[in-house]
Design a protein that fits this description.
This protein has 145 residues and is an alpha+beta fold. It is built from 5 helices and 4 strands, in the order E-E-H-H-H-H-E-E-H. Helix 1 crosses helix 4 and helix 2 crosses helix 4.
Length: 145
């Protein structure tokens, strides 16, 4: 008897690699079971393709500025830094990309979105210690110059 492609191995956290939905909702895809983290990474990669280079650079610069501030932040603090026209759907994948690059890390806390179009909690982030220390060192260099 063969195992159904969506039957997880013991210890697996099963989700569809196509859409990231939990296994119970994923039977419409002919793709193997994967972990939730792998599914999210795949969704992020797909979203990355849809973000224009100018929008990517704009969001990344604003995220870098927030990370260097030493304060915790969420998309609530990022949105006002972005020019009109940057799609909100581009923000989440850029947070994930910044985390993969080691620029930011989650605080483990969540805040409610202040965007009326978004009705969910947002992860709170902070710059990694190396990001904050690099910014402080650069500031000291400018002050001493």
């Amino acid at each position: 008897m063969s195992r159904h492609p969506y039957t997880p191995e013991p210890g697996d956290v099963d989700a569809c690699t196509g859409c990231g939905l939990p296994e119970g909702n994923a039977r419409h895809h002919d793709q193997p079971v994967t972990t939730v983290a792998q599914a999210r990474a795949r969704v992020d990669r797909r979203a990355e393709v849809l973000i224009s280079d100018p929008d990517r650079r704009t969001i990344d610069q604003a995220l870098a500025d927030l990370a260097r501030s030493g304060r915790s932040f969420s998309a609530n603090e990022l949105r006002p830094l972005l020019p009109e026209g940057v799609p909100g759907s581009a923000v989440g994948p850029r947070f994930a990309a910044a985390a993969r690059r080691g620029l930011i890390e989650p605080t483990g806390r969540y805040v409610m979105s202040t965007d009326p179009a978004t009705r969910h909690r947002l992860a709170e982030w902070r710059g990694t210690s190396s990001t904050v220390h690099a910014a402080q060192g650069a500031a000291q260099t400018l002050i001493g110059a």
